[in-house]
């Protein structure tokens, strides 16, 4: 089994972790509540809050504010998700390279760039970095870039050791 203690979390997985009616909700919650080092970009908050507000307006949620509060708890210093904001110029340059090589949306490329710039350097020697997404094109790009795609069809096992 490949050790992916460090995982970059895309907004697609975070959204599913809060919306119980979304396919993949349980696997997304298991990833967030697992014992891994999770990392995401600060702009992910904008994406997730926007999606939660739209879900609230569509009457998919009864109390959007409760879920937004949960999001902020999970990205707080004591929460399971660490926020990162790497250099914008380096991120944009890497994202431009990614969109030229892979069929992904702009924000998907930005997430891949942040994972490459901010998450990969945090990995221990020999440790592979996971990349959690629900987007198949982004999953393919992440794999091509050397990340281990998550979540799998079943919740990932906790890291050993």
Can you offer a commentary on this structure?
This protein has 161 residues and is α/β, with parallel strands linked by helices. It has one domain: Rossmann fold. It contains 7 helices and 5 strands; from the N terminus they run βααβααβααβαβ. It has a 5-stranded parallel sheet. Helix 1 crosses helix 2, helix 1 (11-18) runs parallel beside helix 3 (43-57) and helix 5 (88-101) packs across helix 6. It is globular.
Spatial separation of the terminal alpha carbons:
13 Å
Which strand order spans the largest sheet, edge to edge or round the barrel? 3-2-1-4-5
Beta-sheet strand percentage?
Answer: 5-15%
Q: Which regions contain 5 or more consecutive residues with pLDDT less than 50?
A: 153-161
The oligomerization state is single chain
Q: How many strand units? A: 5
**Main sheet?**
5 strands, parallel
Whole-number total of structural domains: 1
Radius of gyration: 15 Å
CATH class value? Alpha Beta
CATH fold category name: Rossmann fold
| Category by helix and strand content | alpha/beta
CATH superfamily: 5'-nuclease
What best-fitting shape do the alpha-carbon axes yield? globular
CATH architecture: 3-Layer(aba) Sandwich
Mean pLDDT: 90
Report the helical percentage.
40-55%
Count of DSSP H/I helices: 7
In short:
The chain is of the alpha/beta class and 161 residues long. The protein has seven helices and five strands; from the N terminus they run E-H-H-E-H-H-E-H-H-E-H-E.
What descriptive keywords fit this protein?
single chain; 161 residues; Rossmann fold
